């Protein structure tokens, strides 16, 4: 018989707020988003998010999850704002819908969102995103060009094209690629590499404004950087900007078939920690290794051996 | 934390520059970077020295090499990727080799049309294209805060002090770029305060309060400052006691002059009564809103006034340390303040036992490095702490969790000078001038098509027309006035009787913002002005949130299409697009930058100032540059 661990957490006061006129009661310290996911209607629970993840502290950058809170002139990020007694939240107003639509639209007009997953595709449909109305996309930047832009300086556009972050994919090691044409600058990878999981601090946001980007020091290639290939950044990337070389190659070869994919859960045997692993298998070989975000040991994060050590399993 | 560094090593010059700054603060250490950084508890407390360390390198050699960044990373125990992220955030830094003399040419709203663009053309001819050159190069710059003396340039010189020239004459700029000028000579051109503060010309304006010492006091002399009433306010504050000072401030109804108009007394009370210790004071001297130069003028001509006001603020709110964060493009104000702080410290007006009254207060000056966003209070805090100048999520507000997570008072420079006045006359008397939330006097930065541009002090409630008259009236026929700055809006000739109060401005859908009053005559090219404003926000967005990061790009693109008369769809489609962008920027951006980025554009559109952008007859004549 197994006994679940007894969590001796603080006993939390309950806070009452209303969401779209409906009363909701949640523990003190919850965010509005958590309240909506736990106690909201199906629509409220389906609030779009991009920079939020259950296993990261709220980042509050993308602004797709905004809601109206009475008394606040501007919209409020539901993923980051904690609930207060008597708070009145609206999620279904025109103001909210407009902002969510525009955030998705602005991203879709500047970033390749085609691998951002089914939820994002559905939200874009639901909110009526029309990315084409900003004009034809500008041609992709040359390799490294976006990395050399200088803060506070840009060439005045003539408006004939919509500027984008399109650029060649960075393939500089055997384990994973960085396809920053797909980067929405959600900072999740930075947090996962830093204070939220890995404490390696191999990457940071660099540059400023539309020319901001995720970078290693001096844009060094990964093998020359502090990266330890734990792949935790891949695990949290919402758009497919970071992915294993294996997945990248299969996709390039048009051989990527998520429908066919099977997932096997196992426990990593490399060390005594015992991380839960999910082996994603396509055509008889492992293409990715992940760990569930709600797993009490890993919180979704792994090390290089668990993440990329599958070569040794396959060779057995 | 173990840092992994690349093989690049700092040169002796770079190393010396960093160590000269850090050794006195951290104590010297073995200089072998490969030995790895110091670790442990102490290391956590060093990150706030990152920006000063980057300045030290940039000041010495003109750019930030990979080796220099490695050395900084090691000495401060900051991951090199983070150091790079911070270094590339600021416009005054560059991580690529650059000429040792760099001319920053203001091409912003006030300077561009009256010589800024001509200077850019001349420098292109004489030095080469923007950013290119061995010994010297030139780059474009947003407003340098010298608009009353337009056109303006600022020199960044490796190994020598930086300096400004304004009004900048092409031959002088070229000569200075070739090495023929020093900071001492350049500063001398700013010796006469009457140029920037016309009310100090004879006959001296009546009722000057904030400006009362300007032109009278020697900005370099503490004794002279005291001879002109200096440090009487601090004495009075100490007599009254801290809680009474906060009361006077609340009675005065003084509101913040940095743009958000928050009641200062309420802010002070919040920090003064906060349980968590220590408390910090921050003076926001980042003044980078295009068209704004009032704080610079105060700091240049009455620097001790700010030192005294900060001391009062620190004492009343229980802070032992105040940070004075000044924009990197203000070399003269920085020099004057550094001198004033040193003098005050030497004479016991700062330090462990101020005035012999048994309290401790000291001021640390921090230079920004070219980032308008660092004027936003939480971005400023991040910048001081050594992080990228990205605004934080609010709440919590700084008065609860500010610098290093501690209760923090942040005030604008002009707000703090008002504190001296409140102590001088008392809260109720202060409040008797003006009305409602607009009490006391206000500084306005009057520039553009007026006869006598400069900083003007008037009582709240003075009309815009009266202010323009004070500035000698208009040059040419008035087309419109940009009120409040790039984050403000336009006011039309038939609205000149608006009383200049927070409430009066709001009534006509405008804002006083940072006190910008920039006049445009009928020859002005307003489309170019709006494009410059749109470009400004695109450049200055920190990039953190989508509405602002991408919205400012799309706004600029749409304006460009309108300017060319090449809309996607028709003109109405473009206006609807701009409106959609404005709404998401206003409603969903994290901070005030994104929220106000569409303000001027929307204001111009709604006033039909761009009724037909491609038609010069309604927009003035476009300057034809080479
Ligand atoms: C983009 C942006 C730039 C700002 N720049 C400045 C500035 O340069 N100086 C300033 O005092 N306040 C500036 N502010 C306002 C500050 O956030 C803050 O409200 C102010 O410093 C508070 O001081 P006060 O209460 O004395 O006005 C800026 C705000 C935003 C959103
Ligand atoms: S793989 Fe791990 S160490 Fe490398 S960048 Fe990603 S999170 Fe950081
Ligand atoms: S690479 Fe992925 S996780 Fe990192 S900021 Fe870009 S989209 Fe987010
Ligand atoms: S509104 Fe603009 S400047 Fe402010 S946080 Fe967002 S991106 Fe940064
Ligand atoms: S999900 Fe809330 S701001 Fe990104
Ligand atoms: S100094 Fe040039 S516009 Fe202000």
TrEMBL record, chain A:
Keyword Isomerase: no
InterPro entries named in the record: 2Fe-2S_ferredoxin-like_sf (IPR036010), 2Fe-2S_ferredoxin-type (IPR001041), 4Fe4S_Fe-S-bd (IPR017896), 4Fe4S_Fe_S_CS (IPR017900), Mopterin_OxRdtase_4Fe-4S_dom (IPR006963), MopterinOxRdtase_cofactor_BS (IPR027467), NADH_UbQ_OxRdtase_ferredoxin (IPR054351), PSI_iron-sulfur_center (IPR050157)
Domain 4Fe-4S Mo/W bis-MGD-type, chain residue ranges per copy: 261-316
Coiled-coil regions listed: none
Residue stretches making up the 2Fe-2S ferredoxin-type domain: 13-95
This protein's record includes keyword Iron: yes
Domain (4Fe-4S ferredoxin-type) ranges: 174-197, 218-247
Keyword entries, A-Z: 4Fe-4S, Iron, Iron-sulfur, Metal-binding, Repeat
Gene Ontology MF terms in the entry: 4 iron, 4 sulfur cluster binding; metal ion binding; oxidoreductase activity
Region (Disordered) location: 134-165
Pfam families per UniProt: Fer2_4 (PF13510), Fer4_Nqo3 (PF22117), Molybdop_Fe4S4 (PF04879)
Name this protein carries in UniProt: Molybdopterin oxidoreductase Fe4S4 region
Biological source species: Pseudonocardia dioxanivorans (strain ATCC 55486 / DSM 44775 / JCM 13855 / CB1190)
Biological classification of the source: Bacteria, Bacillati, Actinomycetota, Actinomycetes, Pseudonocardiales
From TrEMBL, chain B:
InterPro entries, alphabetized: NADH-UbQ_OxRdtase_51kDa_CS, Nuo51_FMN-bd, Nuo51_FMN-bd_sf, NuoE_N, Nuop51_4Fe4S-bd, Nuop51_4Fe4S-bd_sf, Soluble_ligand-bd, Thioredoxin-like_sf
UniProt-listed Pfam families: 2Fe-2S_thioredx, Complex1_51K, NADH_4Fe-4S, SLBB
GO molecular function: 4 iron, 4 sulfur cluster binding; FMN binding; metal ion binding; NADH dehydrogenase (ubiquinone) activity
Keywords: 4Fe-4S, Iron, Iron-sulfur, Metal-binding
Transmembrane regions: none
Listed Gene3D superfamilies: 3.10.20.600, 6.10.250.1450, Glutaredoxin, NADH-quinone oxidoreductase subunit E, NADH-ubiquinone oxidoreductase 51kDa subunit, NADH-ubiquinone oxidoreductase 51kDa subunit, iron-sulphur binding domain
Family under the similarity heading: Belongs to the complex I 51 kDa subunit family.
Full protein name: Respiratory-chain NADH dehydrogenase domain 51 kDa subunit
Taxonomy of the source species: Bacteria, Bacillati, Actinomycetota, Actinomycetes, Pseudonocardiales
């Amino acid at each position: 018989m197994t006994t679940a661990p007894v969590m001796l957490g603080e006993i939390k006061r309950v806070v009452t707020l209303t969401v779209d006129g409906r009363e909701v009661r949640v523990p003190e310290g919850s965010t509005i988003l958590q309240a909506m996911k736990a106690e909201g209607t199906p629509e409220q629970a389906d609030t779009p998010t991009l920079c939020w993840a259950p296993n990261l502290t709220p980042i509050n950058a993308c602004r797709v999850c905004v809601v109206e809170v009475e008394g606040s002139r501007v919209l409020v990020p539901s993923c980051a704002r904690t609930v207060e007694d008597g708070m009145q939240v609206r999620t279904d107003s025109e103001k909210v819908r407009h902002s969510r639509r525009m955030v998705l639209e602005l991203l879709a007009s500047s970033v390749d969102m085609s691998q951002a997953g089914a939820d994002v595709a559905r939200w874009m449909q639901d909110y009526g995103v029309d990315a084409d109305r900003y004009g034809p996309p500008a041609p992709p930047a040359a390799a490294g060009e976006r990395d050399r832009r200088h803060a506070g300086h840009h060439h005045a556009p003539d408006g004939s094209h919509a500027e984008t972050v399109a650029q060649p994919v960075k393939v500089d090691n055997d384990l994973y690629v960085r396809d920053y044409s797909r980067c929405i600058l959600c900072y999740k990878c930075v947090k996962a590499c830093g204070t939220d999981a890995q404490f390696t601090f191999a990457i940071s946001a660099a540059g400023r404004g539309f020319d901001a980007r995720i970078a290693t020091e001096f844009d060094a290639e990964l093998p020359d950087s502090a990266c330890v290939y734990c792949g935790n950044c891949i695990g949290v990337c919402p758009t497919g900007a970071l992915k294993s070389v294996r997945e990248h190659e299969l996709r390039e070869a048009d051989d990527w078939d998520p429908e066919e994919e099977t997932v096997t859960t196992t426990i990593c045997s490399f060390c005594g920690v015992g991380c839960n692993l999910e082996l994603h298998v396509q055509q008889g070989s492992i293409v990715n290794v992940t760990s569930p975000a709600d797993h009490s040991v890993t919180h979704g994060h792994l090390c290089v051996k668990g993440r990329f050590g599958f070569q040794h399993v396959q060779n057995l | 934390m173990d840092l992994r560094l690349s093989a690049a090593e700092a040169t002796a010059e770079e190393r010396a520059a960093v160590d000269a700054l850090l050794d006195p603060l951290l104590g010297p250490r073995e200089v072998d970077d490969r030995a790895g950084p110091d670790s442990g508890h102490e290391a956590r407390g060093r990150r706030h020295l990152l920006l000063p360390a980057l300045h030290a390198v940039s000041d010495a050699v003109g750019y930030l090499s990979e080796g220099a960044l490695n050395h900084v990373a090691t000495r401060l125990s900051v991951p090199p990727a983070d150091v790079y992220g911070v270094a590339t955030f600021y416009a005054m830094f560059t991580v690529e080799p650059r000429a040792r003399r760099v001319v920053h040419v203001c091409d912003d709203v006030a300077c561009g049309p009256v010589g800024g663009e001509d200077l850019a053309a001349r420098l292109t001819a004489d030095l080469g294209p923007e950013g290119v050159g061995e010994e010297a190069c030139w780059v474009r710059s947003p407003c340098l805060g010298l608009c009353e003396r337009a056109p303006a340039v600022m020199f960044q010189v490796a190994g020598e002090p930086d300096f400004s020239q304004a009004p900048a004459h092409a031959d002088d700029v070229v000569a200075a770029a070739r090495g023929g000028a020093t900071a001492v000579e350049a500063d001398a051109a700013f010796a006469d305060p009457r140029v920037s503060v016309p009310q100090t010309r004879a006959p001296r304006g009546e009722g000057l309060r904030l400006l009362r010492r300007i032109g009278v006091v020697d900005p370099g002399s503490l004794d002279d400052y005291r001879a002109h009433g200096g440090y009487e306010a601090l004495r009075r504050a100490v007599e009254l006691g801290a809680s009474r000072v906060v009361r006077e401030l609340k009675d005065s109804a003084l509101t913040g002059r940095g743009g958000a108009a928050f009641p200062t007394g309420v802010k002070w009370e919040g920090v003064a009564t906060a349980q968590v210790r220590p408390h910090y004071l921050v003076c926001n001297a980042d003044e980078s809103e295009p068209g704004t130069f009032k704080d610079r003028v105060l700091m240049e001509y009455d620097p001790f006034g700010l030192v005294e006001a900060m001391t009062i603020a620190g004492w009343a709110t229980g802070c032992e340390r105040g940070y004075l964060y000044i924009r990197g493009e203000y070399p003269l104000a920085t020099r004057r303040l550094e001198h004033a702080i040193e003098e005050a410290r030497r004479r016991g007006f700062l330090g462990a036992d101020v005035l012999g009254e048994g309290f401790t207060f000291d001021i640390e000056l921090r230079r920004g490095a070219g980032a308008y966003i660092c004027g936003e209070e939480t971005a400023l805090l991040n910048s001081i702490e050594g992080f990228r100048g990205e605004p934080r999520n609010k709440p919590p507000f700084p008065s609860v969790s500010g610098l290093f997570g501690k209760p923090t008072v942040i005030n604008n420079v002009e707000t703090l000078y008002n504190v001296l006045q409140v102590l001088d006359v008392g809260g109720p008397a202060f409040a008797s001038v003006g009305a409602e939330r607009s009490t006391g006097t206000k500084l306005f930065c009057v520039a553009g098509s007026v006869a006598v541009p400069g900083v003007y002090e008037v009582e709240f409630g003075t009309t815009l027309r009266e202010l323009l008259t004070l500035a000698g009236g208009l040059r040419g026929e008035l087309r419109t006035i940009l009120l409040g700055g790039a984050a403000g809006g336009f006011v039309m000739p038939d609205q000149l009787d608006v009383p200049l109060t927070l409430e009066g401005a709001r009534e006509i859908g405008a804002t006083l913002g940072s006190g910008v009053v920039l006049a445009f005559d009928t020859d002005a090219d307003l489309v170019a002005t709006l494009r410059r404003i749109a470009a400004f926000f695109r450049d200055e967005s920190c990039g953190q949130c989508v509405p602002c990061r991408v919205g400012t790009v799309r706004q600029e693109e749409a304006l460009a299409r309108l300017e060319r008369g090449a809309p996607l769809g028709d003109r109405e489609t473009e206006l609807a697009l701009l409106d959609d962008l404005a709404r998401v920027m206003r409603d969903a951006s994290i901070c005030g930058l994104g929220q106000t980025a569409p303000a001027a554009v929307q204001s111009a559109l709604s006033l039909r100032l761009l009724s037909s952008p491609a038609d010069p007859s309604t927009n003035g004549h476009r300057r034809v540059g080479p």
